Amino acid sequence: MKMRLNYYKVLGCNKDSTQEEIKHAYHRRLLQFHPDKNDAVDIQEFHDVKEAWRVLGYPQCRKKYDAACKQEQLEEQDSPVYARLTPHELEESALEDTLFYRCRCGENYFIERQALRKKNTVLQVMCDGCTLIIIVET
Ligand SMILES: [Zn+2]
Coiled-coil segments, which residues (predicted)? Predict the structure, then answer.
């Protein structure tokens, strides 16, 4: 199971955003998630925002990140994708900490509940019985 944080989604901007737009988006998020300003905030989200800025805030790092994402998409194409899902399309399993999704081959994809807690990530899960994968976006 691979996972990568989608930094653009974390900041609320996209691949085509200018550096200036990314900077604004970062400041907006900082205010929104800063623990001093809001005590109902998820500290993990605040850290994600800072992590996203450390990458997207610097054109060199951003370029590397974009290249890594592109590479990942290419690799993804090698394993045929059976389905793209959101977490609530997964089914409850007998195991409390695991969800599953049935594959067309009759086997299942198993996803740990823990892995779905982190927002804005893309999970790739391989089938237990064949070479297909599913992609779950949190
Ligand atoms: Zn399968």
Answer: none
